[in-house]
User: What shape does this take?
Amino acid sequence: MFYVKSKIGNSAEINIEITDENVYTRCPICGEEFNIDIQDFLLDKDFDIFGTAVYCENCGKKVR
Ligand SMILES: [Zn+2]
Assistant: This one.
């Protein structure tokens, strides 16, 4: 498993397991937040997790 880890203040930290249900992104056009299946992106060798923008369903239709 993989998880994200983040410090909260000086004494606490959270560890959250990454699943196919808890990875979210925000559409760069309309700002809508939505869930993505990270697995789909990891299979793409050109995928850049920090630089990739994912459009929501509506904006994706307009862009294509
Ligand atoms: Zn959008």
The longest strand covers residues 3-8.
